[in-house]
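User: My instructor asked us to take a sequence, write out its structure as tokens, and then describe one feature of it. I'm not sure where to start. Here is the sequence I was given:
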Amino acid sequence: MITEATPTEYSVAIQIHAVMQAAYALEAERIGLAEFPPLRESLEELRQSSDSFLVFQQSGSIIGGLSYRRGTDTVAITRLVVSPEHLKQGIATALLSELESRVFPIARLTVSTAATNAPAISLYKRFGFKTASASTSAEGIPLLHLFKASAVTDWSIATVVEREPEGKHLSR
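Assistant: Let's start with the prediction itself. The structure tokens for your sequence are:
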């Protein structure tokens, strides 16, 4: 079951943090990094996050989570984690689908991930995300920046036509 969560609540934050630590430890191992920045996020930092959270619960325990930050016309996915014991069960897919049902196609979706994180890249590409750019983090991690354009806010996809009172059309 997917619900909204508030990490300011200690009992929620401790579960989300535990899933994050386990998931990011596995990701760090997969991409060959001993020092992986997401592993440094403390429980207190998580509790102070202004991000919105969706969590996947099973038998009352949080086993997956997705956090995001809303902008004017963009929603940035800031975390997508699944407990390693529950991988390959469709949890990340369900969380991403839930987010899309809440914000897409009104908002453009963005996410960044390690360029060598093949499972994450594959998931985002299945959802129609495209590569926007690549960069290297301050820690030297190659990153891919992905997006899924909104039909409503992306000018390359939708053209807004305004009608003037006289019936003239102005295209932006």
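For the description part of your assignment, you could build on this observation: The beta strands are 2-5, 52-58, 61-70, 74-82, 108-114, 130-136, 142-148, 161-163, 169-171. Try explaining in your own words what that tells you about the chain.
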